[in-house]
Amino acid sequence: MSERSTTIRPPSRSARLADALRGADPRAKVAATLALGLITWRSGPVGLACIAVPAAAACAALGAWDATHARTLRAYLLFVLLWSGVKFGMDAFFPPAGLTLGDNLAQAGLLGARLALLIALGLALARATNPRRLGLALAWALRPVLGRHAWKTALSLALMLHFIPLVHETATRARTALALRAPRCSRRRRVVLAAQTVLRSLSRRTWGQTLAVAARGLDEAEAWSAAFVPQPRVWLATTALIASAWAASLI
Q1: If 0-12 CB within 10 Å is exposed, 13-18 middle and 19+ buried, where does residue 166 land?
Q2: Which residues of 63-82 are buried (b: 16+ CB within 10 A; e: fewer)?
Q3: How far apart are the C-alpha atoms of 249 and 48, rounded to whole Å?
Q4: What is the pTM for the complete model shown?
Q5: Which residues contact 15 (CB under 8 A, 6 or more apart)?
Q6: Are the C-beta atoms of 24 and 234 separated by less than 8 Å?
Q7: How far is the C-alpha of 225 from the C-alpha of 8, rounded, in Å?
Q8: Residue whose C-alpha is closest to residue 174's, from 147, 138, 154, 198
């Protein structure tokens, strides 16, 4: 029998980018996200576009735009549209001196772009780094300020990041179960039942998570002291990205 020849395809550019982002120093990723977030609030259209390109590429490589996250992405979009509309309405009812309709639309759109970009930066950071490594990076950064109590803040952040997708998953399952088992239930009753289901489910999982933290020794300061591998190229790329974004924000 003749054996079929198998060809090994090299990883795509998107896959290489995702691997590079996941393997990068978490301290550099946190620093880049914080710096770019601050620059976003003072950037105009050119600066936002320069930050949006790497942020969108990172989200696409890490699978943040997948169809499985469609419900979450719609919620983010509604959040952006809501606050853009609030900005437009406030300026329309209480307009500053000399503000035209075109200026009002432009400012509301700029606020929406900034909010969307901040969400994209947060998504990229969350998808590229697990909560444990983010906690280690935060403990390292806060140790000069909080001393031996820095691990408590790191543990709180790690638990929060762990429970955010858990809450969303539980709420989605509760809504699906109610839609299948009680299709004739009123909207008000359905909201009450969904809230009760989510709270009860999360209370049980909180107890299990507490036991898991204690069993792994994560409630001690020694668990949050890590020796990070030096990655000069990552820090150089982070510095160049922040400097480029800052320069673009001045345009």
Answers
A1: middle
A2: ebeeeebeeeeeebeeebee
A3: 7
A4: 0.80
A5: 61
A6: yes
A7: 40
A8: 198
Q: Cα separation of 172 and 192, whole Å? A: 14
- Helix residue spans in the chain (DSSP H): 13-23, 26-42, 45-61, 70-93, 101-128, 131-146, 150-181, 187-215, 232-249
214, two tokens: 């204690």
Dihedral sign computed on CA atoms, order 121, 125, 131, 134:
negative
pLDDT tens, position by position, 134-184 = 888 888 888 888 887 888 888 887 877 777 777 777 777 888 888 888 777
DSSP assigned state of 94? S
Region class of 179: left (phi > 0), else alpha (psi between -120 and 50), else beta: alpha
Distance CA 236, CA 240 (A): 6
